[in-house]
Amino acid sequence: MTNEKRILVLGVGNVLYTDEGIGVRAAEHLQAEYEFSDNVTVMDGGTLGTRLMGPIMESDYLIVCDAVLGDGPPGSIYRLTGEDLRQSLAFKNSMHDTDLVDTLIYCELAGNRPEAVIIGMEPEDYQTMATDLSGAADANLPQMIKHVLAEVESAGGTHTMRENKSEEVVYVPRSSC
């Protein structure tokens, strides 16, 4: 049996509302661009709420990628733990099924609540119905991904760039068009 932490990188949000989907877009890029050690799983959690309990409970360390309402300018990157988790849109009953803090509480009641951290970004627009990220979110997505990769490493996971990157990346940044 291995002593490695089981790490879950969970991208959450609603991709139909501009920057509300930043977490999912980050997960898509991580899946397309990187290969991870066997103890790391990257998952698009969308707006599944309590339906994410299974994968969350199977992890020891949870890294949530999401839009975060802080005090910084759009595109600012945040690392949140503990009570600060509620700054994440996923933790505020936005377009998500349920508050993810409640989901973590349910996981604890059911027997396993992993240590959780959010790597989030201040949205520029999370109310306009559009599948593209705002300019600020698009420009800062690579920085957000660097922070997620650093968090994976600090938790005991590894990553390498894919030699043959996936051709199934759904999101194409505006700057690439």
Automatic annotation (TrEMBL):
<dbReference type="InterPro" id="IPR000671">
    <property type="entry name" value="Peptidase_A31"/>
</dbReference>
<dbReference type="Pfam" id="PF01750">
    <property type="entry name" value="HycI"/>
</dbReference>
<keyword id="KW-0645">Protease</keyword>
<feature type="binding site">
    <location>
        <position position="66"/>
    </location>
    <ligand>
        <name>Ni(2+)</name>
    </ligand>
</feature>
<dbReference type="GO" id="GO:0008047">
    <property type="term" value="F:enzyme activator activity"/>
</dbReference>
<dbReference type="GO" id="GO:0016485">
    <property type="term" value="P:protein processing"/>
</dbReference>
<keyword id="KW-0064">Aspartyl protease</keyword>
<dbReference type="InterPro" id="IPR004419">
    <property type="entry name" value="Pept_A31_hyd_express"/>
</dbReference>
<dbReference type="GO" id="GO:0004190">
    <property type="term" value="F:aspartic-type endopeptidase activity"/>
</dbReference>
<dbReference type="GO" id="GO:0046872">
    <property type="term" value="F:metal ion binding"/>
</dbReference>
<protein>
    <submittedName>
        <fullName>Hydrogenase maturation protease</fullName>
    </submittedName>
</protein>
<keyword id="KW-0378">Hydrolase</keyword>
<keyword id="KW-0533">Nickel</keyword>
<comment type="similarity">
    <text>Belongs to the peptidase A31 family.</text>
</comment>
<feature type="binding site">
    <location>
        <position position="96"/>
    </location>
    <ligand>
        <name>Ni(2+)</name>
    </ligand>
</feature>
<feature type="binding site">
    <location>
        <position position="20"/>
    </location>
    <ligand>
        <name>Ni(2+)</name>
    </ligand>
</feature>
<dbReference type="InterPro" id="IPR023430">
    <property type="entry name" value="Pept_HybD-like_dom_sf"/>
</dbReference>
<keyword id="KW-0479">Metal-binding</keyword>
